[in-house]
Amino acid sequence: MVDPRPVTAPRMSAAEEAAWVRLIAVTELLPGALDAQLLRDARLTHFEYRVLMVLADSENQTSGMTRLASHTNSTLPRLSHVVRRLEDRALVERFPCPEDRRATNARLTDAGRAVFAEAGPGHIETVRDFVLDALSPEQLDQLYAISGSLLGRLDPEGRMTATSCSRAPASV
Amino acid sequence: MVDPRPVTAPRMSAAEEAAWVRLIAVTELLPGALDAQLLRDARLTHFEYRVLMVLADSENQTSGMTRLASHTNSTLPRLSHVVRRLEDRALVERFPCPEDRRATNARLTDAGRAVFAEAGPGHIETVRDFVLDALSPEQLDQLYAISGSLLGRLDPEGRMTATSCSRAPASV
DNA sequence: CGATCTTGGTTGTCCCTTCAACCAATCGGA
DNA sequence: TCCGATTGGTTGAAGGGACAACCAAGATCG
């Protein structure tokens, strides 16, 4: 209780704080940048884009809601709202699953496929501009390993399979 | 037009896609994890916490709105709303800047200082659990460099100074 | 087979962010 | 000195996400 320092932020080591501050900045700025480009060029949220992408990569362009939610790192309520909106825009259609009558399937429509196909190249280019082209091949590997470690903490059970990526626990 | 492949996501290289997918997952999961802990333990958003932190680190616990916005990677409208809410909770007070009569200053109140001081240790611990302790010292340096490169693309003018961190362009 | 638990999903409400519009003060010339 | 442009900031409406409540269908077990 004799510490004379003024009230200030609790400190980590300098290296830790520097890395942490930058990581936070990236997590704040990147989503907005992706959304901005996709909304401008394709009237699509980045999250909506990923929903369409998972469907495009699924058998018959069809997936159950729960699987779709885990492949987009999303909650079921969130996904339900988003799919309803996409359905209103006729990019996706929902129908009851034949095998399990509790389940709902979402399927990409022709219009949805067209929108997704048209949005793809511009989005990829944006990802290159903002991320991939900024990193060396070694840094890409490092990013893969680092993100893997963080996901091991953020999503220990590996529920968020994200995509077909087989989430081996962060071995370089 | 003779490409026989089914409609599918435009592809990057395997290494690029793998790293990209994981980065996206981190940017989706990390903010929620931080918000959850702070809301539970201190009724504070991570963004609100950072507003309080910047004020705590400012001279006289006071800062103009524009400076506060750039130090929190935020827009002015967003900050304005948040500061109004914090003011409603008496954690912050606003008053006109004496030197520039257009400007508004925000100052941390005693209550705000107390809430921030109480929230700090738990938050730092969470950051350790989710991020810092998951990485080796080398990875921490790599993360610093990688994030720096990305910020060079996401915020070229360096408007988002984030904190006192002097944003030298991503030299390791 | 009936009671209960779990799984799969939707809906409504609240809160926060975004965006556009707006206003006041200051600066920069002509 | 006056007018336009820029800076600093607020506000209101609109849209998306989180959470809790809810419901229906399958599974489990007596």
From TrEMBL, chains A, B:
Residues 16-152 form the HTH marR-type domain. This is MarR family transcriptional regulator.
